[in-house]
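Q: I'm building a small set of examples for a reading group on sequence design. Run inverse folding on the following structure and report the sequence directly after it, with nothing in between.
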């Protein structure tokens, strides 16, 4: 288990971390999210020993993290660190050797990752000649090659196409199924919501929310009502009680606006029963129910 407890870091007058902390349990995928400059990368660099904290502690299995422990971690930095003139396969093997693997172990693990991350046709290419997406895959393979006990990944999905995202997600799922904790940061909140067991939101160096997606949804202060009505006259939504968050009006597929109208409204209602009455009088109610807030909506509310 990884424990990050009360980390503090200052750069001159700038406070980068102000008591940040969270826990990642065995086999858990933890999504670390926040705006640019919130403290995500600084936290990860402290975990990996790239930076020294001004205060607080990082513990692995209950013990302070040192050099020997960090050798058993896998790290993907925000700034990529590959040797441009090395070929893909030899580069991944090389990093496996640096982490203490035997030549045979490093080669076997590299071959497995090259196949899983769909790099087979590029294994003998120089990194400099790869697309940015394929360079990203190589960097991921470097972080994974020595079969680490913990994975710390800074924006691992950035620049990947959907196929590569699915391939990486599959690899990470295998690692978590084997009990490996995974921490990754991302601005792709829909992806975080889909993949993660738990999430931590950091703002200005402080953790402002954390828990499972269900727990974060439970703390959302606004209850959103999703209403779909067809055949209503224009302007009916003005009679809905409460705050309209979003609305669209369009004809269903294959029909013109003149023959059928389709209204979709997301509302913070002051009276849900009155909203149902208004919708029923306006037209045919196709959908009426509470909408679970997305992680993006939760994030906006928490950091506002």
């Amino acid at each position: 288990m990884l424990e990050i407890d009360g980390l503090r870091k200052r750069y001159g007058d700038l406070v980068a971390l102000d008591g940040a902390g969270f826990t990642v349990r065995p086999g858990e995928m933890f999504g670390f999210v926040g705006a640019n400059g919130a403290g995500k990368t600084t936290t990860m660099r402290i975990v990996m020993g790239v930076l020294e904290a001004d205060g607080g502690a990082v513990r692995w299995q209950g013990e302070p993290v040192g050099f020997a422990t960090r050798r058993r971690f896998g790290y993907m930095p925000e700034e990529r660190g590959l040797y441009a003139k090395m070929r893909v396969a030899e580069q991944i093997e090389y990093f496996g050797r640096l982490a203490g693997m035997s030549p045979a172990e490093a080669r076997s693990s590299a071959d497995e990752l090259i196949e899983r991350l769909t790099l087979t046709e590029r294994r003998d290419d120089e990194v400099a000649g790869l697309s940015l997406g394929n360079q990203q895959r190589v960097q991921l393979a470097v972080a994974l090659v020595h079969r680490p006990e913990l994975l710390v990944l800074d924006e691992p999905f950035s620049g990947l196409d959907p196929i590569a995202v699915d391939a990486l997600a599959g690899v990470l799922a295998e690692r978590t199924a084997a009990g490996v904790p995974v921490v990754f940061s991302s601005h792709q909140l829909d992806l975080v919501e889909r993949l993660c067991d738990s999430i931590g939101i950091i703002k200005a160096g402080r953790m402002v929310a954390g828990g499972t997606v269900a727990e974060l949804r439970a703390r959302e202060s606004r209850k959103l009502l999703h209403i779909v009505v067809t055949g209503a006259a224009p302007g009916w939504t003005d009679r809905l009680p409460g705050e309209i968050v979003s609305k669209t009006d369009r004809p269903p597929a294959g029909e013109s606006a003149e023959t059928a109208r389709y209204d979709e409204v997301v509302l913070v209602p002051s009276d849900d029963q009155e909203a149902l009455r208004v919708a029923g009088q306006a037209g045919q109610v196709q959908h009426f129910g509470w909408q679970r807030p997305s992680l993006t909506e939760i994030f906006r509310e928490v950091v506002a």
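Residues 2-218 form a domain with the Rossmann fold fold (CATH 3.40.50.300).
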